[in-house]
Amino acid sequence: MNAVKEWSAAICMAALVAAMLQGLVPGGSMERMIKFVIGAFVICALIVPLAKIAPKISMNIQESESSPANSQLEGAVEKQLSSAAKESITNLVVSELNNIDIKCKNVNVIMDTNEDGSISINKVVVILAKGSGADCEKASARLEKTLGLKMEVSSDES
């Protein structure tokens, strides 16, 4: 019961301080900002005592070592991330090649997943639909400069 009294006293004091500050604020460009700050002060005055009153609930959720559902979910998520990364790189390569009027036949992205779950792109293999050695060099230079990835560009015509 004592905690409720303290909380209500804190609310009353916060309301009194907020009313006094609002009365002292001159009209003008800063009025909205000061009202915002006063509102945040009142909200904090409401929440802080509640945080002290409410018991802290600790949830100890124990993970099972290797549940099949978790491993299936992790595998599906990893597969989706890998697929999205490959699709994104492929779209970037095709769009960059279209910008320099070179048609792309196939893009193969070679990547690994590190221990921390991050995806590292090792190499991108690009096969041009039609092109000479000059087109391959031009495409490789443009893609490496734009994407910052190691590229292997070859032509379909051998």
Task: Set out the fold topology.
Layout (H helix, E strand, L loop, with lengths): L1 H23 L6 H23 L14 H32 L4 E10 L5 E10 L4 H15 L3 E5 L3
Parallel strand pairs: 2-3
Antiparallel strand pairs: 1-2
Protein model, in words:
By secondary structure, this protein is of the alpha+beta class. 59% of the residues lie in helices and 16% in strands. The chain contains four helices and three strands. It has a three-stranded mixed beta sheet. The N and C termini lie far apart (87 Å). 8% of the residues are buried.
Low-confidence stretches: 57-61
Query: Residue share in helices?
Result: 55-70%
Kindly name the structural category: alpha+beta
Strand order of the largest sheet: 1-2-3
Average pLDDT: 78
Summarize it:
The chain is an alpha+beta fold and 158 residues long.
Keywords:
single chain; 158 residues; alpha+beta; 4 helices; 16% strand; elongated
